[in-house]
Design brief:
318 residues, alpha/beta, 8-stranded mixed sheet, 10 helices, 16% strand
Length: 318
C-alpha cells in the first residue's frame, strides 16, 4: 500500500509456546502482503512453560520479531502496556496469541485505518465461538453490569484492535496502575470503526483465565470507571433510614395505644440484614480504597526481565 506507514503488532502471551510460531507466521504472511514496514512484539507475561524460549527462537529466525519477558505474571493488561510502550509503528495492532483473533482480519483493519475511517479499528465478536454455557452467561452478566454502572457499552468488544499512533500516545499519558484496556480505549473517545468477526478455536493449550482472575478483572473494570456502587450504598442507607423511621413510628403508636410491643424475631432478622448490608458496604468501600492504595504507591505497571531480537528498524514516532 505504502512504505511510509508502519505497523506494530503487540501479542501478549502466557503459556502459549505451542501456537506462538503459528500465530507469528500467520501475522507475517498478512503483513508481507500489505507491503508495509512492520514489527511484531511478543510479551511473555511470566509463562511457566517454554514460551520465552519459543519467542527467542522466533526472534532469531525473524528479524522483525522482538520479545519482552516480564519478571512474573503481571496480568494481560500489564503485558499489553509493555508492548504498547515499546511499539514504534504509526498504527499498533493488539491481538491474542491463541489464534482466537484471526490474523486474516488484519488487512481489512489496516485498510480501514489507512482510509481514515477511524483512529481505532476494533474487531467485535459476531459469534463467540465454542465456549461453556457458564462462560457465555458470565460474559453477558459482566457486560450488562458494566454498561449499567459505567455507561460504556462494551458488549461484543475485544482486545483485538488497531490503534492510531495518536491514540497510543494519548493512552500512554494515562498513569493509572489498575488497567482495563478495553474500557480505557472507549474512555479516550477517538473515532472508532467496528469490524465483526467470529471467534476461532484456540490453536492449542488452555485458557490462562481462571474464574478468580475474570472476577478480578470485572471488579477492576467497575471500580476504575464508575463510582456508582458507592452511590448505591448511600441509597441503601437512605432506604434503611426510612424503614427505621416507619418502624419507630409504628412502635411509638403501639406503645401509646397500650398494645404490647412484640417482634423479637423481627428485630433479630433486621439486625442480621443490617449487619450484612454494613459488611457488604465496607467491602465495596474497601475495593475503592485498595485501588487508591495501589495508585499512590506509584509502582510500575510491570518489570521486564529480558528482551530479545534485533533493534526495531522502525523510526520512533511521537
Amino acid at each position: 500500500m505504502t512504505e511510509s506507514r508502519t505497523i506494530s503488532v503487540v501479542i501478549p502471551a502466557y503459556c502459549e509456546q505451542v501456537q506462538l510460531p503459528v500465530v507469528v507466521a500467520a501475522v507475517e504472511h498478512e503483513l508481507d502482503a500489505l507491503e508495509l514496514g512492520y514489527e511484531i512484539i511478543v510479551v511473555d507475561d511470566g509463562s511457566t512453560d517454554g514460551t520465552w524460549q519459543a519467542i527467542e527462537a522466533l526472534a532469531t529466525r525473524h528479524t522483525r520479531v522482538r520479545g519482552i519477558r516480564l519478571t512474573r505474571n503481571f496480568g494481560k493488561e500489564a503485558a499489553l502496556s509493555a508492548g504498547l510502550e515499546d511499539a514504534r509503528g504509526d498504527g499498533v495492532i493488539v491481538m491474542d496469541g491463541d489464534m482466537q483473533h484471526p490474523p486474516a482480519l488484519i488487512p481489512q483493519m489496516v485498510e480501514s485505518w489507512l482510509a481514515g475511517e477511524g483512529q481505532v479499528v476494533e474487531a467485535v465478536k459476531e459469534h463467540r465461538g465454542e465456549e461453556p454455557l457458564s462462560a457465555t452467561l458470565g460474559a453477558k452478566a459482566f457486560y450488562s453490569l458494566s454498561s449499567w454502572l459505567t455507561g460504556y457499552d462494551l458488549r461484543r468488544s475485544t482486545d483485538f484492535k488497531l490503534l492510531d499512533r495518536t491514540v497510543v500516545d494519548t493512552w500512554g499519558q494515562l498513569g493509572e496502575r489498575s488497567l482495563f484496556f478495553r474500557g480505557m480505549i472507549v474512555w479516550l473517545g477517538f473515532d472508532r470503526v467496528q469490524i465483526p468477526f467470529s471467534v476461532s478455536t484456540r490453536g492449542g493449550g488452555t485458557s490462562g483465565w481462571s474464574l478468580f482472575s475474570l472476577v478480578g478483572l470485572a471488579v477492576t473494570a467497575v471500580t476504575a470507571f464508575s463510582s456508582f456502587p458507592l452511590r448505591i450504598l448511600t441509597l441503601a442507607g437512605l432506604a434503611f433510614l426510612a424503614g427505621a423511621i416507619l418502624l419507630f413510628a409504628n412502635t411509638l403508636y403501639q406503645w401509646y395505644t397500650g398494645v404490647d410491643v412484640t417482634g423479637f424475631a423481627t428485630v433479630i432478622i433486621l439486625l442480621l440484614i443490617i449487619g450484612s448490608a454494613v459488611m457488604i458496604g465496607l467491602g465495596v468501600v474497601g475495593e475503592y480504597v485498595a485501588r487508591i492504595y495501589q495508585e499512590v504507591k506509584g509502582r510500575p505497571r510491570y518489570v521486564a526481565a529480558a528482551r530479545c531480537g534485533a533493534p526495531s528498524a522502525l523510526p520512533r514516532r511521537s
